[in-house]
Specification:
With 335 residues, this protein is an alpha/beta fold. The protein has two domains: 176 residues, 3-Layer(aba) Sandwich (Rossmann fold); 143 residues, N-(1-d-carboxylethyl)-l-norvaline Dehydrogenase, domain 2 (Orthogonal Bundle), CATH 1.10.1040. It is built from 15 helices and eight strands. Strands 3-2-1-4-5-6-7-8 form an eight-stranded mixed beta sheet, sandwiched between helices.
Length: 335
């Protein structure tokens, strides 16, 4: 039987730790805050990040990374994308030599434009077959409430993908395996940026036609970039692509959409971020995703507008005008 450690006791780390424990996998959460860890151990709840959710009695928590990884063969990383490199550098000397490293993180690193699996491989100095990704429509609160849903576990090694699949399959969480790590991971990162755009549209009072247009054309941008990086185009029609995109763009639980809604209603970027208490990865990763697209000469007009609103003081109405005023072209054109 596998044993797991989840680094990160926030909303998604806690929810996925619960999934693993419910699946019968002995699991330890490693958190930074003593009060969060004590609450999980003493009351089987995490009131800061999953209020009202009863966690399995078997789910343990600690603030000690060395204690957390003892005997683990699944090491799950659930920290913000832009802190992964620094944190993993501290944890790497403690990692069991044959552990599968699993990313729950949906972002692209600033400065390097590396996907999270690439950062993990570089920092931990492990081969691709020892890195896996969990992605798909993973709204943490719904999973914590044990609502039925499906997800994807992606790894270049089919045996490791199946091992992770078995470790997290429950009556409410159905994981599918996929060998396309690039496509799964990129889809999870880019959909957050598109969700900001959809949120802006919603905040401006636009209806379902506008939002559906952004979702569909956002998927086209994601697919173009993914294929340029070597992804399987079919990945973007599945749970990791369309599934995650629809969930994140449609749900009021989405942090990235919430930031966009605040912007669409006229809030400043600083105020919109302050009003959203947890990390919106699309805000942080949007610039690195745009840089990645530029490196590969891929046209991504929606992502460009989101970056301009977030970092270049573009007004949302001007962003709409820019998108709607683009040169007419066939739907399956490269841009």
């Amino acid at each position: 039987m596998s044993r797991a450690v989840v680094f990160g006791a926030g909303s998604w780390g806690t929810a996925f730790g619960m999934v693993l424990a419910d699946a019968g996998t002995p699991t330890t959460l490693c958190g930074r805050r003593r009060d969060v860890v004590d609450a999980i151990n003493d009351t089987h709840q995490n009131p800061w990040y999953q209020e009202g959710i009863r966690l399995p009695d078997s789910l343990r928590a600690t603030v000690d990374p060395a204690e957390a990884v003892d005997g683990a063969d699944l090491v799950v990383l659930a920290v913000p994308a832009q802190t992964l490199r620094e944190n993993l550098a501290l944890w790497t000397p403690l990692l069991p030599p044959d552990a599968l490293l699993v990313s729950l993180i949906k972002g692209v690193e600033l400065g390097t434009t590396k996907r999270m699996s690439e950062v993990i491989r570089e920092v931990a100095d492990v081969p691709a077959e020892r890195v896996a990704v969990v992605t798909g429509p993973n709204l943490a609160r719904e999973i914590a409430e044990r609502q039925p849903g499906a997800s994807v576990v992606a790894c270049s090694d089919a045996d490791n993908a199946e091992r992770l699949q078995a470790a997290c399959q429950t009556a409410y969480f159905r994981p599918y395996t996929n060998g396309d790590v690039i496509g799964c991971e990129l889809a999870g990162a880019v959909k957050n940026v598109i969700a900001v755009a959809v949120g802006i549209a919603a905040g401006m009072g636009f209806g379902d036609n506008s939002k559906a247009s952004l979702i569909t054309r956002g998927l086209a941008e994601t697919s173009r970039l993914g294929v340029a990086l070597g992804a399987d185009p079919m990945t973007f029609a599945g749970l990791a692509g369309l599934g995650d995109l629809v969930a994140t763009c449609s749900s009021t639980l989405s942090r990235n959409r919430s930031v966009g809604e605040h912007l669409g209603r006229g809030m400043s970027v600083a105020a919109a971020l302050a009003a959203t208490t947890t990390t919106g990865e699309g805000v942080m990763s949007s610039r690195s995703i745009l840089e990645l697209a530029h490196k590969h000469d891929i046209e991504v007009p929606i992502i460009e507008v989101v970056v301009s609103v977030l970092y270049e003081q573009m007004r949302p109405p001007d962003g709409v005008a820019r998108l709607m005023g683009r040169t007419a072209k066939p739907e399956r054109h490269d841009g």
